[in-house]
């Protein structure tokens, strides 16, 4: 039976303050929990309804599992339509130093103050689809372990490395090309992205900060044909990832 303390703990993890305090975050959904079970992350405990538990892959013996009623599970879930499975996962240790050597020979995404959890989660999922395994976030970008972000990644967070840092200072230290997604610039379809580089995507309302633009090598735009004012940042990132993949595999 779930205790009040367990319910209180899980509910508190909706907030970054308590995720940091307890060094835990929540993963919901059968597929997402299964992805984290078989990843480098350490799953501390799983709560499942009896029906959902039968749908999980074989769970390692070192992970504690607790079967709860549908009513009890509804007290834990933050979803409108709970899937009956929730895991408490330990926050990873701080990532090591990231420099040009780590980023050579590949493209990585840089996010400048992206605020919407759904956007960040979608970007992580999209990045994995197109084979990009590193995302660099400004310190004001939404927390990657926010439950809404984790949910939107659909398990991709288990395999994509996300780093938080002062991106302006970081870009000054690297020696690979820096591309920026802007409303004005060279067409994405006429831009040679080469074999490596950083792709900067801006904040939903303000775009990329002006001070950061001074450090950009190539300004790139997605050509506008209709009258829409702008593109959603997750959609724009998808188009950039797709073009990177097209150029990589172009014969």
State the name of the first-level CATH class of the largest domain: Alpha Beta
| Low-confidence parts | none
Tally of structural domains: 2
- H/E order of the elements? HHEHEHEHEHEHEHEHEEHEH
The helix fraction, in percent, is: 25-40%
Taking the sheet with the most strands, its summary is: 6 strands, parallel
What's the number of extended β-strand segments? 10
Q: Determine the number of helices (DSSP H or I, runs of at least 4 residues).
A: 11
Could you tell me the mean pLDDT? 94
The Cα radius of gyration reads 20 Å
What is the name of the CATH architecture of the largest domain? 3-Layer(aba) Sandwich
| Amino-to-carboxy terminus distance | 59 Å
Helix/strand class: alpha/beta
Describe this entry's structure for a reader.
- With 251 residues, the protein is an alpha/beta fold.
- The chain folds into two domains: 4-90, 60s Ribosomal Protein L30, Chain: A (2-Layer Sandwich), CATH 3.30.1330.30; 100-249, Alpha/beta knot, CATH 3.40.1280.
- The chain has helices at 4-12, 16-22, 30-37, 50-53, 70-76, 100-103, 117-129, 147-153, 167-171, 210-213, 233-249; strands spanning 24-28, 43-48, 64-67, 85-90, 107-111, 134-138, 161-165, 178-187, 197-201, 218-221.
- The strands form two sheets. The chain has a six-stranded parallel sheet.
- 33% of the residues are buried.
- The model has no long low-confidence stretch (mean pLDDT 94).
């Amino acid at each position: 039976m779930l205790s009040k303390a367990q319910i209180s703990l899980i509910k508190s993890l909706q907030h970054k303050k308590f995720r940091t305090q307890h060094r835990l975050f929540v993963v919901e959904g059968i597929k997402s929990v299964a992805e984290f079970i078989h990843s480098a992350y350490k799953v501390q405990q799983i709560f499942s309804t009896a029906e959902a538990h039968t749908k999980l892959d074989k769970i390692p013996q070192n992970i504690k599992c607790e079967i709860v009623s549908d009513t009890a599970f509804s007290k834990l879930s933050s979803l409108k339509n709970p899937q009956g499975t929730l895991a408490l996962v330990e926050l990873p240790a701080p990532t090591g130093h990231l420099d040009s050597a780590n980023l050579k020979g590949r493209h990585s995404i840089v996010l400048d103050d992206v605020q919407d959890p759904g956007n960040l989660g979608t970007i992580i999922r999209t990045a994995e689809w197109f084979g990009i395994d590193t995302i660099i976030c400004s310190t004001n970008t939404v927390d990657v372990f926010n439950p809404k972000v984790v949910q939107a990644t659909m398990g991709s967070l288990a395999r994509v490395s996300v780093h938080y840092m002062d991106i302006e200072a970081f870009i000054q230290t690297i020696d690979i090309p820096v591309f920026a997604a802007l409303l004005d610039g060279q067409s994405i379809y006429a831009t040679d992205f080469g074999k490596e580089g950083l792709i900067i995507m801006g904040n939903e309302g303000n775009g990329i900060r002006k001070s950061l633009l001074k450090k950009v090598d190539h300004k790139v735009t997605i050509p506008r044909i209709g009258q829409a004012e702008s593109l959603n940042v997750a959609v724009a990132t998808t188009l950039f990832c797709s073009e990177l993949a097209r150029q990589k595999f172009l014969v």
